[in-house]
Amino acid sequence: MAGRADSTVLAGARVVLPTGTVENGRVIIEGTRIADSPAEDARTVDLSGHWIVPGFVDMHNHGGGGASFTSGTVDDVLTGVRTHREHGTTTLVASTVTGEMDFLAERAGILSELVEQGDLAGIHFEGPFISPCRKGAHSEGLLRHPDPAEVRKLMDAARGTAKMFTLATELPGGIESVRLLAEHGVIAAIGHTDATYEQTVEAIDAGATVATHLFNAMPPLGHRAPGPIAALLEDERITVELINDGTHLHPAALQLAYHHAGAHRVALITDAMDAAGFGDGQYQLGPLAVEVKDGVARLVEGNSIAGSTLTLDTAFHRAVTIDRIPVGDVVQSISANPARLLGVYDRVGSLEPGKDADLVILDADFTLKGVMRKGEWIVQPVPAAV
Q1: Residue of 175 and 278 predicted with greater confidence
Q2: For a Cys-Cys bond, which of 7, 60, 189, 310 suits 42, CB 3.0-4.6 Å?
Q3: Gap between the Cα atoms of 156 and 149, Å rounded
């Protein structure tokens, strides 16, 4: 083992493991992976006063760094990926927005190549199979019923890299499409929906397993008409996505979801668009014009919220410092849970020997100070090697 220059010990930090937090812990890196013992000449990085947590896993993200995953070139997509990596997201699914079927199929082909070469973890189709009543920042004229044949067309175009479809399952073909996706190991997510409580239960029984950005783009919780929110929160088979940017959700709504679903059923996501990590200005979300002002993205026409400018380091920071969610629960929601859903928990989502060396360094105030992906520093932490 002696002589391996790629052996590194990150020492002295609070390390968040699946079994709990270890004070004055260490993480051993050998090449691209986490190891259980270091080489004799391993270099040590003193991270006293810091936290080490697993790299973040974002299963719902439309772009960043000024680049769109729906319409950008390959280089644009990679710009967005790099932007989010710099904010701690070491595993990322590219989400599309509603468009013409042929266009979406073409995008799937482009994005699938980036999945195959390891830059993306999969593709998420958000639209066009959603409700015009809850369309949010999607072009109403391009919306379609979730015809299983058309769902299958996009699955085929993605060449096995499709990870998730967001569907309004109450629409014609919705339940059949859920069953099709479940049969092929693709996540059926309920979202942008006007479903009743009963219709939502039917979709869950058919195989739906995720709530796309719970509370947003669905009927509110009512005492006589509980709608989809109650059905999604109460069912152990459902993981609920939450956008913790301070705009999409009131802190009490986030607390409600954590309390009722439990941390093991929450996935913190960004739902980020081009402006994430880039700044205010004018953007396009699919065919729709968006203005970002003070970090909030809204459609120019209609003023609907149009995705977010969130990065997951900010979501983590808010969850711990503002929402007072325990650190271990936040790690579960931002890393382990989405990794399990995406079928990649054997490689990422926790700090365990044999897994990819994907991790995030946070200071005592939970501000990002370092990011490592597959053993390579994306953001070099300040403490010097000794």
Answers
A1: 175
A2: 7
A3: 10
The CATH architecture one would assign to domain 56-342 is Alpha-Beta Barrel (3.20)
Given 235, 245, 271, 358, the catalytic residue: 271
Q: Is 84 annotated as a binding residue?
A: no
Quick check: 39 and 4 in contact, CB under 8 A? yes
303: annotated binding-site residue?
A: no
**Architecture of the 7-53+349-379 domain:** Roll (2.30)
- The answer to whether 357 is a known ligand-binding residue is no
Give the pairing of strands 266-269 and 281-285.
unpaired
Task: Please provide residue 299's backbone torsions phi and psi, each rounded to the nearest 5 degrees.
Answer: -65, 140
How far CA 79 is from CA of 93, 147, 162, in Å, comes to: 14, 34, 21
* Residue 271 designated active-site: yes
What ranges do the domains of the chain cover? 7-53+349-379, 56-342
Distance CA 229, CA 241 (A): 12
Quote the tokens at residue 108.
Answer: 């799937």
C-alpha 23/C-alpha 268 separation (Å) is: 25
Residue corresponding to tokens 């070099």: 380
pLDDT tens column, 285-337: 878 888 999 989 898 888 888 889 999 999 999 999 999 999 999 999 999 99
33: β partners: 30, 356
Q: What pairing do the DSSP bridges indicate for beta strands 63-64 and 43-46?
A: unpaired
To the question of whether residue 88 is assigned a binding role by annotation, the answer is: no
Q: Let me know: does 350 contact 341? Beta carbons within 8 Å.
A: no
384 burial level (CB within 10 Å; 0-12, 13-18, 19+): exposed
- DSSP per-residue string spanning 101-115: HHHHHHHHHHHHHHH
Q: Does the reported pTM lie above 0.90?
A: yes
Rg (CA), the chain: 20
